[in-house]
Write a structure and sequence with these properties.
Radius of gyration: 19 Å
Shape: globular
Order of helices and strands: HEHHEHHHHEEEEHHEH
Length: 259
């Protein structure tokens, strides 16, 4: 099985290619990967999507169609669902780990995501790490995309969409796992509509400041202020996700108007 899998890890597919190619080839890769998830271990739909170069929704559809897939019960929608089912966080199997088991060359972006998770778990409390991962899961469930920095500290940019959707880059928040902060990038928004307008950035700042533990300076609309990741623990994480959802909706409306 490992010999068959000794090939380059695929790049993510475009929407028009995704479903067909998954049925033809990537579905086999998912089956091989799940065979490697031993008893007590678990993974998520998103990790399988990263491994197969597919979209998360397509992986969900594939597993729904192939109910006899071995170890299918060891795959969860996200990390929060796995924890609710009583799975241990240290038994999580990432896409990078699955790729190594299958003998695949590891895509740089996935390797960076693995680095982010390791730095997060090493540097933050279990409560903070869970809250950050829950925010990331919630963001991708909304249709958001993730971009990983290539510095010594692996940052995570919560992008509004992927490159296949549009080359216009939009994001409101960058996460830094080692220093434990979330940076609100007003500075970058100044040249990126619709948040190039001061009143839009002001409303975004005000919405963030309604979350307990977040107090962004009123004069920070041209800078990149930060708040501590501890603000995401408890109800704060869902509140921040709500602010990000509002940001994304306005960006999507702007993109739709571009034709």
């Amino acid at each position: 099985m490992a010999e068959r899998a000794l090939s380059l890890w695929p790049a993510p597919l475009g929407a028009e290619q995704d479903a067909g190619l998954l049925e033809e080839s990537a579905g086999e890769r998912i089956g091989e990967a799940l065979a490697m998830v031993s008893s007590g271990n678990w993974t998520t739909h998103r990790e399988l999507a990263l491994l197969a170069g597919a979209r998360t929704a397509t992986v969900v559809a594939y597993l729904g169609k192939h109910e006899g897939t071995a170890h299918r019960h060891r795959v969860f929608p996200d990390t929060s669902a796995a924890e609710r089912a009583g799975m241990l966080r240290d038994r999580f199997v990432s896409a990078a780990a699955l790729a190594e088991l299958l003998g695949l060359d590891i895509d740089k972006a996935v390797e960076r995501e693995h680095g982010f998770r390791e730095q997060l778990l090493d540097s933050r409390s279990p409560e903070e790490a869970r809250a950050v991962l829950a925010l990331i899961d919630g963001w991708t469930a909304l249709g958001g995309s993730l971009h990983w920095g290539d510095g010594t500290e692996t940052s995570c940019f919560l992008r509004t969409w992927d490159q296949a959707t549009s080359s216009h880059k939009r994001w409101a928040l960058t996460l830094y796992p080692r220093i434990g902060t979330a940076e609100v990038v007003f500075q970058h928004m100044r040249s990126r509509p619709p948040f190039d307008r001061v009143e839009m950035r002001r409303e975004l700042l005000d919405r963030f400041n309604t979350v307990p533990g977040i107090d962004l300076p009123e004069d920070a609309l041209d800078r990149r202020p930060s708040f501590r990741m501890s603000a995401l623990v408890g109800e704060g994480g869902q509140q921040v996700l709500g602010v990000l959802s509002w940001f994304r909706e306005h960006c999507q409306e702007w993109l739709a108007d571009q034709g």
